[in-house]
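Dear colleagues,

I hope this message finds you well. In preparation for our joint manuscript, I am sending the 1,4-alpha-glucan branching enzyme (Amphiprion ocellaris) sequence together with its predicted structure, so that both groups work from identical material. I would be grateful if you could confirm receipt.
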Amino acid sequence: MADREDNVTVPEFSSLLQMDPYLKTYEKDFKRRYDLLQKRLFELEEAEGGFDQFTRSYKTFGVQRQPDNSLFFKEWAPAAEALFLTGDFNGWDKFSHPYTKKDFGKWELILPPKHDKSPAVDHHTKLKVVVHTKEGERLYRISPWAKYVNREEKSVIYDWVHWDPPQPYNQVHPRPAKPTSLRIYEAHVGIASPEGKIASYTNFTNNVLPRIKDLGYNCIQLMAVMEHAYYASFGYQITSFFAASSRYGTPDELKELIDVAHSMGIVVLLDVVHSHASKNTEDGLNHFDGSNSCYFHSPPRGEHKLWDSRLFNYSSWEVLRFLLSNLRWWMEEYRFDGFRFDGVTSMLYHHHGIGSGFSGDYSEYFGLQVDEDSLVYLMLANHILHTLYPDCITVAEDVSGMPALCRPVEEGGLGFDYRLAMAIPDKWIQILKELKDEDWNIGNITHTLTNRRYGEKCIAYAESHDQALVGDKTLAFWLMDKEMYTNMSSLIPMNPIINRGIQLHKMIRLITHGLGGEGYLNFIGNEFGHPEWLDFPREGNNQSYHYARRQFNLVDMDHLRYCQLYAFDRDMNRTEDKYGWLAAPPAYVSAKHEEDKVIVFDRANVVFIFNFHPNKSFQGYRVGVEVPGKYKIKLDSDMVQYGGHGRLDHGTEFFTEAHFYKSILHQCRAAILWSSIL
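The corresponding structure tokens are as follows:
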């Protein structure tokens, strides 16, 4: 193998080494990975006529209506002894409609149309695959390629429901151009309402999309869309990979949601879970053909001990067909604009990140602990997506810091566009939990916000869904806790806890937005300081929806301070849209003063000044600036409409003098953003 690696050329590997010469030591690893990718692409060309055809397998597997209205059924069940189709269409006869066995574990069945030439299976009727195992068992299964599944009210198990509407929704709005500055609104359809129930796609379209547009976000990351039998899994235990969750409505209503988002200039990413699958058998992929493998590795490799779920066999041809076609399906059928890949750390390593601290030593990212099957799958997925859809956006959820994760495949990278800056929210929670305000380490905060691999784009965020889950709480609740229940009225003076919380909530967001990455993410409701935490109905909370909702009614009450935080978040995004700091090179930090608790940095011809001191304000404070000239305040967290104290005169013009300019910075706990007027 070593000789073969020596003959492999990674086309643009020199570009990667220019950015990070230390990776030269691991050149053989990069060559081997790239060689494995090229072998896969060659095999796809030889066996399937290329990846374009291969990734359209959702048009041949599952159930397909033919031009003459006959129905063609196809499954992969290599360990099965026999397959039958049953359902409403044949009175649930278990033996009348057998599949025919084909090569490579495939099974096929053709149902001719009825006498009136309509399809044999009606739209919105139930089906099941009956699997006979070699051990003589009879199993009832849902097709892995099912496009719609539903659960009757009293039932625990989901049903495969044939989806073939007479007049399907046609999306009319073109995909927006790929944003240069990515401002992501992470959202969950089911919780997107103040009411204690599962909210709908239609509610999201009508009531939440206009808010997202108003707030200045240009991208939505939709969680929990892929069907999951257990609502409280937050959408991370997938049972039907091709089905949009029916608990929020129909496939057509999701298509309309995406279409309307596109009409607003907003791109939509799917939170895709290809890192593992639910252990459910009757309505999941597990034991589909009666074996302990099929789509997964046999145990123990095929089981995730912490997540209690199954792990895919990424070296299997049919698993590649299934997962790559799944990505293509969401892009083509629903017209998503890209993906946030969940659980990438678990995929990259045989240890799944369990018990690994990831010190940053490069030896942790190469060698036998790396699962090259899944790593090459991710390279293949990114290569195919970006070839077929040049504007496609892919984001990796990786905590390990794998080098070249967000560099092009041609350089030997994994091909993602962005990675999530997962250390940033952890740092904010740690600071608020453990430190007094006067003990904040300004250098450490700055380091955390700027510590990222050069040339690999990051999505910065102060908090996401992870931080809001039960057992933790939102940043606003860490800052203000029970005071939020009684003291958020703007009709009464702010007490010290509310004052501190309101100011720090804005400052933490702005410094994360300005310094932390090349994209920014906010979780639904947190933009206005959503109180409490997130908890889905389950046995432990008496099946309550009380914490599984977003209280938009709070922001709609003018006399509550939530609308002030909302206004700041909106104007922060709109200011970024004007100056484009997320698309600019990383910031130059000109000051991080421990005693004064001041941070100053330049980015995109904008100067950011933060005073985190709990009680010390400054006058005539000198700060360095890159561009000489005249400066004016463009965003000020201390403005009254943002819940501030209005201590700065926005009419003041600030002039540079001999490489410095003076700033009259009155307010403790405030942030201002200046732009030069040349």
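For the figure legend, we might mention the following. The two ends are 60 Å apart (CA to CA). The mean pLDDT is 94.

With kind regards,
E.M.
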